Amino acid sequence: MDLAVARSPQSLFLRELVAQPASVGAICASSPRLAARMAALVGAHPSGLVVELGGGTGVITAALLAHGVPPHRLVVVEQSAALAEHLRRRFPDVCVMQGDAAELTDWHAAGRLPAGQDGLPQPIHTIVSGLPLLSIPAPVRQRILHAGAQALAPQGRLVQFTYALRGASPWQASGLVRQHSERVLANLPPARIDVLGH
Ligand SMILES: C[S@@+](CC[C@H](N)C(=O)[O-])C[C@H]1O[C@@H](n2cnc3c(N)ncnc32)[C@H](O)[C@@H]1O
């Protein structure tokens, strides 16, 4: 990666957008306002893992840390190798998994996510998703929805943003129930945040 791109997260984001438009699914990273609302909707997180799907350049990751999520309980999943490398450099104390979000259940079952202080696997109490579910091909989307709903702990909470201001959340097709919805107009384009649970 050349130095100019390494120094500018926005250049990196645009480069990935040109290379994989459906996978990135946005013209720019989320606004600070959207990231802050996503983090606020995580609520209290006394135990277990917080897993962010589709970390991008780390705007929401930074908001989660600023909100008080401890870095050792935060896992960020990012498919793009270049973005995953950027995230590892930017957040050295956070576990960054490079790969497909559909692998979440397998990684969890295989003990590849951070263990608790007792050495045991930790439940995933929160999933925060910036995945562009509507532009991801249907078969891949189905696997992601299945994995996310399976991995989420029984009392867990899933927070997803979308640019579709109306309609059901794709997560509802996986059996999750929408508990809250709000719009964030201070974003390009304006977005909706859905909070879901079992
Ligand atoms: C709309 S961007 C959001 C980035 C960042 N969270 C933000 O809000 O600015 C979507 C991100 O999801 C990643 N992504 C897309 N499909 C993925 C998948 N199947 N597994 C993991 N990450 C994926 C893309 O590479 C991209 O970084």
TrEMBL record:
GO terms for biological process: methylation. Gene3D superfamilies: Vaccinia Virus protein VP39 (3.40.50.150). SUPFAM superfamilies: S-adenosyl-L-methionine-dependent methyltransferases. GO terms for molecular function: methyltransferase activity. Coiled coil: none annotated. InterPro entries: SAM-dependent_MTases_sf. Pfam families: PCMT. The keyword NAD does not apply. Keywords: Methyltransferase, Transferase. This is Phospholipid methyltransferase. The lineage of its organism: Bacteria, Pseudomonadati, Pseudomonadota, Betaproteobacteria, Burkholderiales.
